[in-house]
Amino acid sequence: MSRNPTFVSPFHRPHCLAAAAAPAGKVKLTHPGKAILAGGIAGGIEICITFPTEYVKTQLQLDEKANPPRYKGIVDCVKQTVDGYGVRGLYRGLSSLLYGSIPKAAVRFGVFEFLSNKMRDESGKLDSTRGLLCGLGAGVAEAVVVVCPMETVKVKFIHDQSSANPKYRGFFHGVREIVRTEGLRGTYQGLTATVLKQGSNQAIRFYVMTSLRNWYKGEDPNKAINPLVTGAFGAFAGAVSVFGNTPLDVIKTRMQGLEAHKYKSTLDCAVKIMKHEGPKAFYKGTVPRLGRVCMDVAIVFIIYEEVVKVLNKVWKTD
């Protein structure tokens, strides 16, 4: 009787059942290649939707109190821009950010999936603490590889276009001029602030997203999440990150502007802002940034998840 292959001893049955149940309950991992492609697509679509709020945020941050303020607030900034340049004026500098958003999101999600695949437990679950560490790694990677040079060009381009006599004729002309006059280092201004900002940004966002996903899925790691729920989770994660690191965003923007030479270092920039403008200056542009980031993170996560679903059907990596 014991040689019958269909017979299972009662003493071994729990173990066999557990072994059989394990594969069914294990999370399906996302291949880093899929994450890079899906992230790039999501990043490109998102920035085309949200750029006007990014433009307003940058303009308000560059409008220092040390000089007579040019704008009275968000509405006035939008009004002056539209009156002077038309609605297209709100999209000045889009090219520099678009060229950066695609590789930025690609690197972010690619690195996050690569790290998270290594740090998940036996069932494939990623706890919130490890999600934070993976997000931190993804943020630092995107800062060094993409964000710092692209954001430096973007800020200089927007700042230049708002001056009386703009000297940059377009994105590539601007890049050539910056490299010609300042060298490659001219595209890496504010690297420390950018690494701190992006690292903390993604650490906070992925920590919140991982926590909310684990809470929503409960004991079923493969439970599907409705895109609207993903969007709500993303918007909340974005809001938390805004209040967590807007001061770093302000410092980064100042360090990358055309008047960056006024500051000796990231710390010197922070000290001078505090000395001449007070603590409120560290939260300039918070409202437009809050609106943009919530929408940004929600859109990116929704598109990313949906593109991954499509890729899983046409690109078999198991």
TrEMBL record:
<comment type="function">
    <text>Mitochondrial electroneutral antiporter that exports citrate from the mitochondria into the cytosol in exchange for malate. Also able to mediate the exchange of citrate for isocitrate, phosphoenolpyruvate, cis-aconitate and to a lesser extent trans-aconitate, maleate and succinate. In the cytoplasm, citrate plays important roles in fatty acid and sterol synthesis, regulation of glycolysis, protein acetylation, and other physiopathological processes.</text>
</comment>
<dbReference type="Pfam" id="PF00153">
    <property type="entry name" value="Mito_carr"/>
</dbReference>
<feature type="repeat" description="Solcar">
    <location>
        <begin position="129"/>
        <end position="215"/>
    </location>
</feature>
<keyword id="KW-0812">Transmembrane</keyword>
<dbReference type="GO" id="GO:0015297">
    <property type="term" value="F:antiporter activity"/>
</dbReference>
<feature type="repeat" description="Solcar">
    <location>
        <begin position="30"/>
        <end position="118"/>
    </location>
</feature>
<keyword id="KW-0496">Mitochondrion</keyword>
<dbReference type="InterPro" id="IPR018108">
    <property type="entry name" value="MCP_transmembrane"/>
</dbReference>
<dbReference type="InterPro" id="IPR023395">
    <property type="entry name" value="MCP_dom_sf"/>
</dbReference>
<dbReference type="GO" id="GO:0005743">
    <property type="term" value="C:mitochondrial inner membrane"/>
</dbReference>
<dbReference type="GO" id="GO:0006843">
    <property type="term" value="P:mitochondrial citrate transmembrane transport"/>
</dbReference>
<dbReference type="InterPro" id="IPR049563">
    <property type="entry name" value="TXTP-like"/>
</dbReference>
<dbReference type="InterPro" id="IPR002067">
    <property type="entry name" value="MCP"/>
</dbReference>
<keyword id="KW-1133">Transmembrane helix</keyword>
<dbReference type="GO" id="GO:0007528">
    <property type="term" value="P:neuromuscular junction development"/>
</dbReference>
<protein>
    <submittedName>
        <fullName>Solute carrier family 25 member 1</fullName>
    </submittedName>
</protein>
<dbReference type="GO" id="GO:0071913">
    <property type="term" value="F:citrate secondary active transmembrane transporter activity"/>
</dbReference>
<keyword id="KW-0677">Repeat</keyword>
<feature type="repeat" description="Solcar">
    <location>
        <begin position="225"/>
        <end position="310"/>
    </location>
</feature>
<keyword id="KW-0050">Antiport</keyword>
<keyword id="KW-0999">Mitochondrion inner membrane</keyword>
<keyword id="KW-0813">Transport</keyword>
<comment type="similarity">
    <text>Belongs to the mitochondrial carrier (TC 2.A.29) family.</text>
</comment>
<keyword id="KW-0472">Membrane</keyword>
